[in-house]
Each structure stands twice: as C-alpha cells, then as structure tokens.
Amino acid sequence: MFPISNYLQRLSNSKFLFLFLLVFCSFPLYFFQNARDKINELSGKSIDAIDITFGFNPQHTLYLVDAYGDTARAYYAQSVLTTDVAFPMVSAFFFGIMLTMLFRGQSLVRTQLLPFISMIFDYAENTCIVSLLYSYPQQSIYLATLCEIFKMLKWLTLAAVLILMIYGLLMKLLRR
User: Fold this and answer.
1) What is the mean pLDDT of each run of 10 residues along the chain (176 residues)?
2) Which residue intervals of 44-113 are DSSP H helices?
3) Dist CA 92 CA 117 (whole Å)
4) Cα–Cα distance measured from residue 106 to residue 88, given in angstroms and rounded to the nearest whole number
5) Are 56 and 152 in contact (CB under 8 A)?
6) What is the dihedral of CA 59, 75, 151, 66, to 10 degrees?
7) From CA 124, how far away is CA 122, in angstroms rounded?
8) Taking a C-beta distance cutoff of 8 angstroms, is the pair 38, 112 a contact?
9) Which element (helix H / strand E) includes 152?
10) How far is Cα 148 from Cα 58, in angstroms, rounded to an integer?
C-alpha cells in the first residue's frame, strides 16, 4: 500500500538503525553547530536560526531575516540549501526505522510514516526560509506566516514521533 513502508520493513535492523543514528547525530553536533557559529560570526551577534525557534511569531521571523545582515543571510540560505536538504531525509529514515522496529507486526507500525510527514513540513519551512532570505529587503508577512505554520507543524509531528518512540520503548521494556 505504501512503498516507503515496505522499504522501511526491509531496512529496519540494528545495523541500519546504528548507521542512521551516527549520521543523524553528526548534523546537530557538527554541521548545524558550525553553521550557527558562522552565521553568528558573519552577523556580528548571537542570533538564532529561524528553523530552530519555537512559538508562532511571524514578526520575529522577519526581524531575524533583517538582523542577519547581507553576508550571514547569504550563508544561511546556502546552508539551508545544502545541509538542511539532507537532514530532514536522514532524520525521517532514522525515526522511521526506529518506529518500524518498535511496532513491527502491530497496528501502530504505520506510525513509521509520521517522520516523512514531518520531513515534508521541514522542506516546506526551508523553502519559505530561503525565499525570505533571498527576497530581502522585501519582507512578506504572508510568507513569514506560512513559514511559521510549517515550522509549527514540523515540531508537532516530531513531538508525536518522540512520544510514540517513548511509548514503544516502554512497551518493549514492560514485555520483557
């Protein structure tokens, strides 16, 4: 029914889980950390990346776009178009494999698709961020609002994935 579900069923074993865990961890520990440091250096101040902020505040998103400055804005856009293209896919597979292994043979196994829905929201958010960065100095409250909606949906689906993972782990522990 869902080709990705069948693929995850074949891919889901401890070897691939460990491989995706290593790749997944390399992003926040290395790639995103370096990008954040470079953005702060180029902007001359400590400033958050739009995609890691919480809450619904389109005005704050527009403020951040302005506050980066030209060089940091260009670097951030390039970072989103490279590193942040790979990360949503890596995280979707990591979480999808984990959910598949936790719920294999159970009715909740289809929750393995939730990380891929989050990935779609992340890509939509990234598209909005790049558009906001490249269209500066023009500022679109509509685009900033859309960005915030996609960001909120990304975080909500990721929260659901984490809750499901905790539930699955607890159920595995209780069965033993």
Assistant:
1) 82 94 96 95 95 93 97 97 96 96 89 96 98 97 98 97 96 89
2) 58-103
3) 8
4) 26
5) yes
6) 0
7) 5
8) no
9) helix 141-175
10) 6
Instruction: Give the phi and the psi of residue 16 in degrees, each rounded to 5.
Output: -70, -35
Pairwise CA distance, residues 32 & 43, whole Å:
16
Query: Contact 20/97 with Cβ under 8 angstroms?
Result: yes
DSSP code, position 31: I
The structure tokens listed for 116 are 């891929």
**Amino acid at residue number 118:** S
C-alpha torsion 110→115→118→124, nearest 10: -110
Nearest partner of 145 among 134, 158, 131, judged by Cα: 131
